[in-house]
Automatic annotation (TrEMBL):
It is a multi-pass membrane protein. InterPro entries: HtpX_protease, Peptidase_M48. Residues 101-288 form the Peptidase M48 domain. Binds 1 zinc ion per subunit. Belongs to the peptidase M48 family. Its main location: membrane. Pfam families: Peptidase_M48. The chain crosses the membrane at residues 12-37, 43-66, 162-180, 192-225. Keywords: Cell membrane, Hydrolase, Membrane, Metal-binding, Metalloprotease, Protease, Transmembrane, Transmembrane helix, Zinc. This is M48 family metalloprotease. One of its GO terms (molecular function) is metallopeptidase activity. Its cofactor is Zn(2+).
Amino acid sequence: MRAPRRRFDMSAVIELLLGVPTVLSSLLLITLVGRAVTPERPWLFPVVWLVSGVIVFLPATGKLLAALVHGMRGPTGTERAALEPLLGAACGAAGVDPGRYRLRIQNSKEINAMAVGGHVVGVSTAALQLPREQLEAVLAHEIGHHLAGHTKISLLRWWFELPARATVWLVIIIGLGIYLAGDKIGTTGAKVISFVLIVALGVAAVLVSPWVLLVPVIAPLLALASRKAELHADRVAAELGYRLVLLEVLQRWVKEGHDEQRARAGFKARMLASHPSCALRISKLRGERRRPPSRSLGA
């Protein structure tokens, strides 16, 4: 078994840094709540909130999010029998224990796979129809995400950003309610008052969560980091011997029109895309000249 490649790559570091402004806004909000609720111990709420981050590393958290966010379920006996040997082979190549990962299934007609949290490896029902060696290569790619810490960093950032993001959504909902109330009353005075209240609400939100001013910059940079993470996971799969087979999967997606759909989406959509084009991924994999040749994969 090879030494496991457990290292944070640059994309994970970039995502961690990009989350700092939002996390600081969340910390400010939690601190204000703590001072209001427990003025004699204002440090209590922030400390408890920071310690709560350990919840993202629990296996149960990944399974819960896989079910709630991605609609994933546990595999049937037949699905498990098909997937476990392939996961075991991919983990064996990486030098990690396959028992640390939890298999999940997403009912979907699109070929897809994903890593969630620190322990979940999920595939779509359509992906189960891939040839065994191609499905094994896809699983190796997802293991690459776990080994690089991509999923843990994403989940940790999401957890600590929740207070700030929830506050922004609350402000938007309240602002919409004020606007609808002023519009329903219909008088000029009511509309002016609603406008003033909305502006005041927006200013207060920016003062408490100044990160919203950085969204136009942070969003595309986070998308770029996500695309870099995909290329890194491809590289890990190539290092484990799956380069040629992973190329087959990507070429299959090209034939199915994935890149054509991406091209039609427009510049903004491509800038905010979480995955690079298949053409770029193929180019990067073909450029892995210093990597060992792909090993023969059993059916």
